[in-house]
Amino acid sequence: MAVIEVGCFSCGTNLQYSNPPGFRESCPHCHADVHVCKNCLFYDAKIYNECREPAAEVVREKERSNFCEFFQVRTGSVEAQNKKAADLKAAAEALFKKK
Q1: Which residues in 75-93 are b (16+ Cβ under 10 Å) and which e?
Q2: pLDDT tens, position by position, for the chain (99 residues)?
Q3: CB–CB of 62/38 below 8 Å?
Q4: Residues ≥6 apart with Cβ < 8 Å to 65
Q5: What confidence score (pLDDT) does residue 92 get?
Q6: HEC per residue, the chain
C-alpha cells in the first residue's frame, strides 16, 4: 500500500497517511484541519474563489475543514512543494531575463 505524504499548510509538518485524509483529520503537531482548501490540489490563491475546480461551491474559510466533493489532497512534502515553486520561479526568471 502506498503512503500518501501531505504537508500541513499551517505548520509545514510532513504527515503520512495510508488512505486520503478524512474530513476530521488534523495535524498532530499544530492541530490544524487537514481536509481544507489550502491542502487541496485545486487550491490557487491567484484565481477567483481560490479554486481551479469551476463546479465547486464557494468555501469562505480556506483553512477550516469542509465537505467539498472535489477535494483532492495535494501530495508531497512541504520541502518538495517549495522546491517545485522555486524551480518554476527560476525558470520564469531565466526565460524573461533581460540581456
Answers
A1: bbbbeeeeeeeeeeeeeee
A2: 688 899 999 998 999 999 988 899 999 999 999 999 999 999 999 998 999 999 999 999 999 999 999 999 988 756 665 666 677 778 888 888 765
A3: yes
A4: 23, 24, 33, 34, 35, 36
A5: 80
A6: CCCEEEECCCCCCEEEECCCCCCCCECCCCCCECCCHHHECCECCCCHHHECCCCCCCCCCCCCCCCCCCCCECEECHHHHHHHHHHHHHHHHHHCCCC
Could you tell me the three cell numbers for 18? 495510508
Produce one character per residue of 12-28: b if its CB has 16 or more CB atoms within 10 Å, e if not. Answer: eeebeeeeebeeebbbe
Half-sphere exposure of 5 (CA within 13 A, CB side): 9
The residue type found at 84 is K
What are the grid coordinates assigned to 24, written together? 476530521
